[in-house]
Amino acid sequence: MDASLRRALTEALGAGCLLLDGSLLVPDSAGGVAAVLRIAHEHRLHLRISSGSGTGATGSDGVSVLSLAGLTAVSVDAPRGIVRAEAGARLASLRAALAGAGMAVPGLGADPGAEHIGALIARGELPRRSLTGIEAVLPGGEAIMAGAAVLKDVVGYDVTSLLLGSRGRLAAIVAAHLRLVPAGVTVEVAGPAGARSVEELAAVFDPEGLLAEG
Hints:
Layout: H1 3-13, E1 18-19, E2 24-25, H2 30-43, E3 47-50, E4 64-67, E5 74-77, E6 82-86, H3 91-101, E7 103-104, H4 117-122, E8 131-137, E9 143-147, H5 159-163, E10 172-179, E11 181-182, H6 199-205, E12 211-212
Parallel strand pairs: 2-4, 3-4, 3-12
Antiparallel strand pairs: 1-2, 5-6, 6-10, 7-11, 8-9, 8-10
C-alpha cells in the first residue's frame, strides 16, 4: 500500500482501523465504509468484503479486505414488524434480540451457513419475502437504501433482490431490514435465493472490477 493511499485511509478511518499493514480495513460506521470505497475507487484498490473479522480472507492476491465486523447494531421494532440489523451483527445476537421481543424472522433457518447478517444476505441464504430493505454502499462510495422499512409489493427496479445473493460483487451491504412475525407463527415463504451469476450486474455496479467475490 503506497503512502498516499495509507494517508487517505488513516485520515478517513483513524490508524486503529488499518490492520495487518493496511491489508485489513475495519471501519466502525456506514460512513466509514463509504469512505473506504470512495478512496479505493480513487486509488484503484481492489477489495474483498467480509462481514466477520476478515483475518481469514486476507491473502497474497493483492486484494485488501474490508471487514464489516465493526457494524453490529440490532434494533427491533416489534409494533411495525421490522428489525434492522447491521452487517457485522452475529445471527446469535439477532436471535437473542428477537427472542426478547417475542418475534422471529420467517424463513431464517436454524443453522444457515452464514454467521453474520451481511454474509446471510450476500450469500442469498434468506427468502426475498423476509427482506424488506437493504442499506448498502456502491463501489464508488455512494450510500443507497434499497427497498423500505415496511413490507409492500411495488412495481419497479428491485435493487434489494439484486443485492440478495450477490456475494459482495455489487456493493457493500451495511445493514438489512427484515420482516418479523410473532414467535411460533408459521408463515410460508419461498426458499432462499440461492446462487446466481452476477457477472452482468457487476459490469454495471462495479465497472472498474474493484470488488472481489467474498
